[in-house]
Design brief:
By secondary structure, this protein is α+β, with helices and mostly antiparallel strands. It is built from five helices and 14 strands. It is 22% helix and 26% strand. Strand 2 (32-39) and strand 3 (45-53) form a beta hairpin.
């Protein structure tokens, strides 16, 4: 669906290579972003760096007739037997994924090869589709008032070539100082295309970095993560919570009401707490929890002992 890469500043020289960052971007080519946090002695975190980068996004060049569906995007889950198609209104069509397609493991094919394989398969099924890029969407990307104290801030409001995105993310990783961690996100759209849905999602109360799908949320304008954060903040205001213990319990309770699978980071702008929750989505860590990744193939070669992060 999407990918998350995270690494803490360390004395072992462990980092994600430009190649690994590029592969994550090519496999999830609907935008990228990052956040950098510094851990304080009292256990709180400061948000010290944040960026969004918008690539081209899918739009149908084929003009559908009345009641005709043209599927413009698709997703698969690792080791899944199914593929999900999406039309320009966000409607889904789930199909059995043949073994011959070989796209259940994203490292077997490049992103372009995977798209071509899916298109050829759909042609044989006579399912109308259009995965061609149909121009770039340029939408403003801005921080909320509560986030403007974060410095330095890197924001890219327009579209950016892939090479520049990779270089920018690698440079942000290189800027890590003591007690800092960078969390990178690479998006594959399932709902809500465009820069305003590129992660991290920045609200008035929370910043969210999410991999997975929240059932019943999101449409052709707003992503499921964006709607999730919007609903979360409305409930948070009503609850009028005070203190990190109640805040964490609130987040846990809210997640239990939402169906789907997820690997998600929350940063609370109010309490400066950084939270992580997971349900079903893959997320691996190096044994000393220096590095984290949705796909363990992104780790450097020297990292061989990985565990599922809880």
């Amino acid at each position: 669906m999407c990918e998350i890469l995270a690494v803490k500043k360390n004395s072992h020289g462990l980092e994600f290579s430009k190649e690994a960052i590029n592969i994550a971007l090519q496999n999830n080519h609907d935008g990228a972003g990052f956040t950098t946090f510094k851990k304080n002695r009292d256990g709180t975190h400061d948000l010290v760096d944040l960026g969004h980068f918008q690539t081209t996004v899918y739009r149908p060049a084929i003009k559908p007739t009345v009641n005709e569906k043209v599927y413009i995007d698709y997703t698969t889950r690792e080791n899944s037997d199914f593929i999900t198609l999406y039309d320009d209104r966000g409607a889904e069509k789930i199909l059995s994924c043949p073994n011959s397609l070989k796209i259940s493991s994203p490292d077997l094919l490049t992103y372009a090869e995977e798209v071509a394989a899916v298109e050829n398969w759909l042609d044989t099924l006579k399912i109308k589709h259009d995965f061609n890029y149909y121009g770039a969407i340029k939408e403003p990307s801005a921080l909320t008032e509560g986030m403007r104290k974060a410095s330095p801030t890197v924001i890219d409001a327009g579209t950016t070539p892939d090479k520049e995105i990779v270089e920018s993310l690698y440079a942000a990783q290189q800027r890590l100082a003591a007690n800092e961690v960078i969390i990178m996100h690479f998006r594959r759209t399932t709902s809500g295309p465009g820069a305003k849905n590129t992660q991290p999602i920045v609200g008035n109360r929370f910043v969210a970095i999410h991999n997975g799908v929240f059932s019943g949320l999101g449409d052709h304008e707003q992503s499921d993560t964006s709607e999730f954060v919007s609903n979360l903040e409305k409930l948070y205001e009503v609850a009028a919570l005070r203190g990190k213990a109640k805040e964490k319990a609130f987040l846990e309770a809210y997640l239990e009401t939402i169906g789907g699978w997820y690997s998600i980071f929350f940063y609370s702008i109010i309490t400066k707490q950084l939270y992580y929750f997971r349900n079903g989505a893959s997320f691996y860590s190096y044994e000393n929890e220096t590095m984290y990744a949705t796909n363990k193939e992104r780790f450097p070669n020297k990292v061989t002992d990985t565990t599922v992060y809880q």
